[in-house]
Amino acid sequence: MKKNYSYIKFGDFAEIQPMVKIGRDTQCGFIPMEVINPGYKYVYPIEEKKYDGSGVKFENNDIIFARITPCLEHGKIAVVKGLNDNKGFGSSEYYVFRERKEVSTRDYIYYLAISPLIKGNAIVSMVGASGRQRAQKDVIEKTVVKVPDLPTQKKVSLILSAYDDLIDTNRRRMQLLEETARLLFREWFVYFRFPRLSQGFGGQAGHEKACPVESRNSTGVKIVDGVPEGWEKGPIKKYYDTTSGGTPSREHPEYYQGDINWVKTQELDEKYIFDTEERVTQEAISKSSAKIFPANTLLVSIYGNANIGRTGILAKPAASNQACVAFFPKKPYFHFIYLQQYLQMIRDYLVGMSQGAAQTNISQDTLRKVNILMPDELFMNKFLKIAEPLYEQIKNLQYQNQKLAHARDLLLPRLMSGAIDPVRYDKLSNGVEA
């Protein structure tokens, strides 16, 4: 293979903190730290906001790189997409990287940024008070990287981007499925608009509005005290048993060298949880208040205003720390899907409860006393007949993305170091004899 690699300082390879002009009070795309999903290459603005002079500015195709702990360790690094007028801003805790013409490509910079060379060196360089440490810009700039010429950069990036583009496509499909489930829940259980009983709840007919109190709506369901007859309101504890997890002693590092997933609140991202950052042993479980929960257990965070009310579903058995509350239905039809949708809907209320008490958490007992609406078994089963396939598709897409990310991560260091010739790899992967 032709030796087309050279050594260069990262600050000469990529422009760091490039100039972006945005006038004060200009409306533009906003990307906060929490919307960057580690493992996903692209990030999109969540809303349009007026720029007030604070925050880091960037343009489409810039790479934003978290500089603060623990966001950097978690891999909050992404390529910016979807900005109107090509201008946006976000957290002040970003570094911004941009390609240099005739020197580097956007994608190659991104793959360098997520590699141990740049991310790892940035983590080691962190200074500051505990919990607020930040990576040093000059260390990142002076990090020497081995890089190929532009044609090779493009070939490497094309191979790796094929995985990331599939991941992004699946992510968008998951978003549509999540939105479908959310709209279905609100139509049926907030606005009480559902198909006619005679249509079996599964037809394509339009929805009907419920009529006033003490009357029957057009679906044939009687509305009493604002809810359909046979439904009820009660505290969560009436329908679900709960328990919290625990943290095995950190004085025993061997406890964290096991194969049992151990979930922390920051890993609750409203989706299924397949793998966790830390895994514990059976001995760690037996010698702590941690316990193993079965697959399809719904977990809810009760600590930290940024995390309170966040949910996750176990894709396989796992334990959790004490900041997570696990829910177990007292009847089979008190399904985790319904409770997750309900808790997502009232998350602002849960966060408000913690803020109102001047604390950064709510107790498990407080959560258990929150009143929810519970439909009767007939309606719940009809809802689940539609919702469960949506969730199953989401789970399958998540699993696909996990496999794609794993394959990409195996290829990344070998392609970028030159251990694999990108031209030869591309021919082999297309069934052409190299």
Describe the structure.
The chain is an alpha+beta fold. Among the domains are: 5-148, Adenine-n6-DNA-methyltransferase TaqI, Chain A, domain 2, CATH 3.90.220.20; 232-374, DNA methylase specificity domains (Adenine-n6-DNA-methyltransferase TaqI, Chain A, domain 2), CATH 3.90.220.20. 35% of the residues lie in helices and 21% in strands. It is built from twelve helices and 24 strands. It has helices spanning 10-13, 106-114, 116-124, 137-142, 150-189, 236-239, 282-286, 336-345, 347-356, 364-368, 377-417, 422-429; strands at 5-9, 14-16, 27-31, 42-43, 47-50, 56-58, 63-66, 77-80, 88-90, 94-99, 144-148, 215-216, 222-224, 227-228, 232-235, 240-244, 260-263, 272-273, 278-280, 298-301, 311-314, 319-320, 324-329, 371-374. It has a five-stranded mixed beta sheet with strand order 2-10-7-8-4. It has a five-stranded mixed beta sheet with strand order 16-23-20-21-18. Strand 12 (215-216) and strand 13 (222-224) form a beta hairpin. The longest helix is centred in the last third of the chain and has 41 residues, at 377-417. It is globular, with a radius of gyration of 25 Å.
Can you lay out the helices and strands and say which pair or pack?
Blueprint: E1 5-9, H1 10-13, E2 14-16, E3 27-31, E4 42-43, E5 47-50, E6 56-58, E7 63-66, E8 77-80, E9 88-90, E10 94-99, H2 106-114, H3 116-124, H4 137-142, E11 144-148, H5 150-189, E12 215-216, E13 222-224, E14 227-228, E15 232-235, H6 236-239, E16 240-244, E17 260-263, E18 272-273, E19 278-280, H7 282-286, E20 298-301, E21 311-314, E22 319-320, E23 324-329, H8 336-345, H9 347-356, H10 364-368, E24 371-374, H11 377-417, H12 422-429
Parallel strand pairs: 3-9, 4-8, 17-22, 18-21
Antiparallel strand pairs: 1-11, 2-10, 3-5, 6-9, 7-8, 7-10, 12-13, 13-14, 15-24, 16-23, 17-19, 20-21, 20-23
